[in-house]
Amino acid sequence: MTLIDRDFLRTTIRTRRRELSSQAQQHAARQLVTHVVPFLQKHQARCISLYLACDGELDTQPLIEWCWQNEIKVCLPVLHPFHEGHLLFLSYTPDTPMLLNRFRIPEPEMNSSHIVPKHEIDIIFTPLVAFDAEGNRLGMGGGFYDRTLENWQQTGRPFPVGLAHDCQQVEMIPTEIWDIPLPALITPSRSWQWS
């Protein structure tokens, strides 16, 4: 498959998830918590990275609030100010000042004292556009998470887990050499673990 096929897939699946009703989105967000909490407990996670949903992505706010209530540290990805195409992770609390980045996605205001080194994060929950039953992930095309996760298998940290609506599953993701497959993925109805 070609890059055109990947772009077509992105457009199709983004439209599909945006068409979910607000009631369906809220139900999915609550269901997500019921699947992720046992996963966090099994992996004894004390520090995780999540994302703030946009463009119809699976809403993580109920999960973030559960983590805050249960003393699990939450961080959010921030576009690296000096290293184009890379992410930093900053701690996120109810009082964190937020800004919109160049993609109009909310992220914590840059504060070097709130940077969480990647090796201190137990699990990175990644957004995605589409996934298949083999653990292949199609992102937005910027490669931010592929760069972030490129060496995770050497150390086993941070462990990447995709989050998606069930409707984002496709038969096959056309992969490129730089794509990093996911070892686990969770939707509102089920979870997969490939390694």
TrEMBL record:
InterPro entries: FTHF_cligase, FTHF_cligase-like_sf, NagB/RpiA_transferase-like
Cofactor: Mg(2+)
Gene Ontology biological process terms from the UniProt entry: folic acid-containing compound biosynthetic process; tetrahydrofolate interconversion
One GO MF term: metal ion binding
Protein keywords: ATP-binding, Ligase, Magnesium, Metal-binding, Nucleotide-binding
Binding site for substrate: L52, E57
Binding positions for ATP per the UniProt entry: R137, L138, G139, M140, G141, G142, G143, F144, Y145
Annotated catalysed reactions: (6S)-5-formyl-5,6,7,8-tetrahydrofolate + ATP = (6R)-5,10-methenyltetrahydrofolate + ADP + phosphate
EC number(s) on file: 6.3.3.2
Pfam families attached to this UniProt entry: 5-FTHF_cyc-lig (PF01812)
Family stated for the protein in its record: Belongs to the 5-formyltetrahydrofolate cyclo-ligase family.
Protein name: 5-formyltetrahydrofolate cyclo-ligase
Organism (species): Tolumonas auensis (strain DSM 9187 / NBRC 110442 / TA 4)
Higher taxonomy: Bacteria, Pseudomonadati, Pseudomonadota, Gammaproteobacteria, Aeromonadales
